[in-house]
Amino acid sequence: MGSVDKEVELKNRKGFWRESLNPWLVRAKNNPERVAYVLHRVTGFIIIAFLLAHILETDSPVWTQYAPINGLTAWSAWSYIMHVESAWYLKIGEFIVAGSVFFHALNGFRLLLTEFFGVGIGKPVEPKPPYEAPTLSAPQRTWLYIVFVLSIVLWAFSAYLIFG
Questions:
Q1: pLDDT class for 73, splitting at 50, 70, 90?
Q2: DSSP string spanning 13-43?
Q3: What is the pLDDT of residue 148?
Q4: Three-class SS of 94-162
Q5: Which residue, among 158, 149, 153, 161, has the nearest Cα to 36 in the 3D structure?
Q6: Distance between CA 136 and CA 120 in Å, rounded?
Q7: Does the pLDDT of residue 24 top 60, yes or no?
Q8: In angstroms, rounded to a whole number, what is the distance separating the alpha carbons of residues 65 and 74?
Q9: What is the mean pLDDT of residues 69-76?
């Protein structure tokens, strides 16, 4: 490969940060797949953070014996943590976690059906510029919109249960 070819390649490369590490900078106009991709990652992080906090909270009768909370240990510390977590403003966190779980689960199921079982993927075609995947047309977008709508409906129902 000559130096001219290498210069052209480097000039046309979009950049690692812009294309790989920061998906929010990529234009998402009329691209619900990109929105679903970003939401799937963000909801995954929210679920992991919740699980870590839940493990700490559930294990509090054990670890508070070594690091008391306000002088409380064991089950009295756990009761104190439960009292703190029942505050109305922490219910907003529960609401966010519920929405994250609903979207992440439904979108994960959609991805499982698509990637492992080929549901909604049409016949392969030769790619043409601007290299938009033709398989993300009608059937896949329909499944994606169903995931969005079901997530919102279930999230609204969880709001009724959490705040009602």
A1: confident
A2: ---HIIIII-GGGS--TT-HHHHHHHHHHHH
A3: 93
A4: HHHHHHHHHHHHHHHHHHHHHHHHCCCCCCCCCCCCCCCCHHHCHHHHHHHHHHHHHHHHHHHHHHHHH
A5: 149
A6: 9
A7: no
A8: 6
A9: 80
Q: Which residues pair with 104 in a beta bridge?
A: none
Q: Do 75 and 61 meet the contact criterion of CB atoms below 8 Å apart? A: yes
* Token representation of residue 124: 């392969």
Architecture of domain 3-163: Up-down Bundle (1.20)
Pairwise CA distance, residues 123 & 132, whole Å: 15
Torsion of CA 83, 87, 93, 97, to 10 degrees: 50
What mean pLDDT do residues 122-141 have?
66
DSSP H or E run through 1 = none
The domain limits of the chain are 3-163
Residue 89: pLDDT band with limits 50, 70, 90:
confident
pLDDT of residue 60: 78
Please give the structure tokens belonging to residue 141: 């977008």
Residue with tokens 């033709």: 134
Residue 39 has pLDDT above 80, yes or no: yes
